Amino acid sequence: MWTADEIARLCYEHYGSRLPKQGKPEPNREWTLLAAVVKIQPTAGQACDRSDRPVQVTKEVVSMGTGTKCIGQSKMRKSGDILNDSHAEVIARRSFQRYLLHQLHLAAALKEDSIFLPGSQRGLWKLRPDLLFVFFSSHTPCGDASIIPMLEFEDQPCCPVSRDWASNPSVETNDNLEAPEDKRKCEDPESPVTKKMKLEPRTPDGTAHRQSFGSEERGPNPPNVNSSHLTAEELASVTGMTPSGARVVDVYRTGAKCVPGGAGDSRKPGAAYHRVGLLRVKPGRGDRTCSMSCSDKLARWNVLGCQGALLMHFLEEPIYLSAVVIGKCPCSQEAMQRALFGRCQNVSALPEGFGVQEVKIQQSDLLFEQSRCALQTKKADSPGRLVPCGAAISWSAVPEQPLDVTANGFPQGTTKKGVGRPQARSRISKVELFRSFQKLLSSISEDKWPDSLRAQKLATYQDYKEAASTYQQAWSALRKQAFGSWIRNPPDYHQFM
Ligand SMILES: [Zn+2]
Fold first, then answer.
1. Is 444 exposed, middle or buried (0-12, 13-18, 19+ CB in 10 A)?
2. How far is the CA of 293 from the centre of ligand 1 (A)?
3. Is the pTM of the predicted complex or chain greater than 0.85?
4. How close is the Cα of 82 to the center of ligand 1, in Å?
5. What angle do CA 8, 12, 13 make, to 5 degrees?
6. 216 tagged catalytic
7. pLDDT tens sequence across 398-411
8. Which residues form a coiled coil (predicted)?
């Protein structure tokens, strides 16, 4: 039907041809992360084909995001007009919500083909049954999925594991997507010590891994045990050796920190550094962030859907991903399964239509050319500082202004004075998605509104979110049973209208 390489190739081509230069990394100096949602649809006339021939499908990118940054808590705003989290996965998901809103408009106007069909209850829609959505990410998501056993045989030409690194917490900020700037003032970039510290911490999402990418050696061989509550050390001691005889000597690390107040990492040297299966917060620059890691967010979407609370008002069932495809980078099937749905597997008592999705996880052999690893390979002979690109690009398959380029959570070029003005809002900010939602609602005559919106007087963003009762029930079941320490924004951040 489709392969991981086909999905990756389609996304890279889309990135190359449909995204502007503005917001892309500066060549040979900056890198970025890429994510997308791809719609898969059987080619016309194929759906009823009962022969054994594989079903032919059309694949279409419906949303795309790039970005590596996340704002700190002190920069958050109560007006809903800033993007808190600009990691590519999150930008791609918000861009996907914009696409879904547009498709609901089409459905409600009964004008053109839409991905939605009328549901069985008044005002509700359902996804056409022959469609599915695949999530693509050029890298392993930050947080739990990035904690991957590292094997002895792996080719690590640039960075042999140093035991004293892990026990020296002062170096830890290097393990963060934004690290290079953090250290700039106190380090001589050319000193051997500094170099060593920069190279050692590694994250699978594009950081200092040095694997050879031969097809047989793609990614670590994951030990095959159920590890959801084991530390990586316990994991290694359970399995010890892989079938190929390699020993687990360390883990790839994530810059995402454990949620305060809960269980934490041991930070012991080597493979015992991280504890797996925990909720984590994205790193910021000094200022702590309130954004959960991409692993945690993907896990949440696998239970609550990708549409969010607002769109659930119009839907009979949540919109789930069928598969997640990862580009070429260190990635473990086992760590991905644990992070993306294993942690939620026992969540029960979800409202009708909701369920824990065991998404298919596949990896492509194709490398994203503006990823950190691609740049490092290219620049191997001329070392220089590589930095994450500060801008984020959002693209949605919508007819009007599909693009949105931001930096620090605002449209690129926004001045301090401009903040607060309507033109200083990203199209995928909370307040703008809420506007689109309200526009959709006002385009529908009131007698065709779903029951959840007619029962009470709703005004603020928070009111509308809370009124999505099945979604809220599912979210509360998920929190109670698996994600109790999830950091939630205080309610006054959702009081805007
Ligand atoms: Zn992330």
1. middle
2. 6
3. no
4. 18
5. 115
6. no
7. 999 999 999 999 99
8. none
